[in-house]
Amino acid sequence: MNTLSRDDTQRMLNKVPEVTLFFWIIKIMATTVGETAADFLNVNLDFGLTGTSLVMGGLLLVALLAQIKVKRYIPWIYWLAVVLISVFGTLVTDNLVDNFGVSLQTTTAIFSIALLATFGLWYASERTLSIHTIFTTRRELFYWAAILFTFALGTAAGDLAAEGLQLGYAYSGLMFGAMIGAVTIAYYLFNLNAVLAFWIAYVLTRPFGASCGDLLSQPVANGGLGLGTVVTSAIFLLTILGLVAYLTATDRRLAEQI
């Protein structure tokens, strides 16, 4: 059993932010950026899926190493890692579908199994899946592995709904938004387990954000609003930067009061 002092525990608990409204707003926007930025790099800059995956994989590795190295939650490092893992998770699914011909049904099943396996190993090792107990490096590694698979799964499920089942981006967004609403009601009114509610919502916000991103960025002929990946990515990135700057300033003020 790991033995940590109270101060050590407090510092490590701060590695993951509290689940507030800001958390969910930034997370949904990060998922939207993951969808539109991947398309921008792949198509607009003509990197191709392989080139884009290599570039984003390298950036993600650097961001995760920085996140794991720091001793407490630092907003810009944490959310940079989330944005990059969102883009990379999208690319993992896109590579399987576009480069290797794996169907969306199969990729959805594969990442569902991978996520459940990660949770199973995490729980068997740590006896908890709560994000409020990420106070060891091993737990943080489990956490980021789960995050990666939620993004890959969300991409596959979102594309399956919008394209495979031909629901379109707007109806897919409404469907996943309704599911998130149902989880919220189940948590607040029917005492759904907090850890279970968090992870279900975390998975669902990925296809919800991706559907919103596609709705805004895709051409009108494809069922979108035609804003393009550049404009959509810029809007959401600037919003994320503004919110993270606010959280950083707030975090600094709180640290000075301690």
TrEMBL record:
Stored Pfam families: DUF347
The keyword Transmembrane helix is assigned to this record: yes
Claim: Transmembrane helix is one of the keywords in the record: yes
Residues passing through the membrane, by range: 21-41, 47-66, 73-92, 104-125, 141-162, 168-189, 196-216, 228-249
Keywords: Membrane, Transmembrane, Transmembrane helix
Name this protein carries in UniProt: Membrane-anchored protein
Organism whose genome encodes this protein: Accumulibacter regalis
Taxonomic lineage of the native organism: Bacteria, Pseudomonadati, Pseudomonadota, Betaproteobacteria, Candidatus Accumulibacter
